[in-house]
């Protein structure tokens, strides 16, 4: 038997992979430009395992859009989306979109010489959530995250919630507001950082009603508003429990959901720009109507070869 058939890493055995992170939300990147790999969920789990694998919150296959059905369908509407971010959660499940991951994805394309993207330029990337434009400015990348929505509509916004969440470590159930980007999110406001720290995200929360497709959970503490470069900017601190992963140091779509929920709770006159502080760093979220963008760093950390 060959090493590839006996190793738990399967088709990843002996391949040159890359690791990276966006505000410490970390990933294994698998270069597969022509889409020759048939990755299984078990192989993704093996690679992302922090004890017996490489260790990551998720896996990103770097593949041309034309090489997979989802990408081919997207190219019909977005012919500029040459590259597709095939993102998998650490449990092997597919995900629609990853705001931190797409920044790392584009950073890898640049560093590997697969695209020419000078400072100030942008690129369109395919994802299961649709095409996303990413622009580079220095060491930071801005992702046009697309259309956001609140599934509960105006009644949920007016009530301030549309789900009740019971979080281990907190004494009583909390009101949550659902946001989609298109990943499903539930945002819960807490009164202070002491309460935020008390939440036990190592154990599963419960939801009423139960989200049919699962949900990411963002626990947030609004920290007020300041003036930055002549505009009013809100600040919020966040912890996140990611669907299919567990607690992570950051979540790109989650930071957008957090900003959108706090903005809705703040009401008329709330800022459109938000600093979101996560355990892994800080990102900037900007809201423009039903569109939202995310700005933050991207870092490549190592070249690795599973055995």
UniProtKB/TrEMBL annotation:
Extract the signal peptide range: none
- UniProt record similarity statement: Belongs to the diaminopimelate epimerase family.
Pathway named in the protein's UniProt entry: Amino-acid biosynthesis; L-lysine biosynthesis via DAP pathway; DL-2,6-diaminopimelate from LL-2,6-diaminopimelate: step 1/1
Q: Does the keyword Cytoplasm apply?
A: yes
**Pfam families the record matches:** DAP_epimerase (PF01678)
The record's subcellular locations are:
Cytoplasm
**Biological function:** Catalyzes the stereoinversion of LL-2,6-diaminopimelate (L,L-DAP) to meso-diaminopimelate (meso-DAP), a precursor of L-lysine and an essential component of the bacterial peptidoglycan.
GO annotation terms (biological process)? lysine biosynthetic process via diaminopimelate
Can you say what this protein is called?
Diaminopimelate epimerase
User: Chief location of this protein?
Assistant: cytoplasm
Q: What is its EC number?
A: 5.1.1.7
The subunit structure is: Homodimer.
Which residues carry out catalysis? 98, 251
* Keywords of this entry: Amino-acid biosynthesis, Cytoplasm, Isomerase, Lysine biosynthesis
What Gene Ontology terms describe where this protein resides (cellular component)? cytosol
Q: Which GO terms describe its molecular function?
A: diaminopimelate epimerase activity
**What enzyme category does the UniProt record give?**
isomerase
Which transformation does this protein catalyse, written as a reaction? Answer: (2S,6S)-2,6-diaminopimelate = meso-2,6-diaminopimelate
> What residues does the record give for site: Could be important to modulate the pK values of the two catalytic cysteine residues?
185, 242
Ligand binding (substrate) = 25, 89, 99-100, 183, 216, 242-243, 252-253
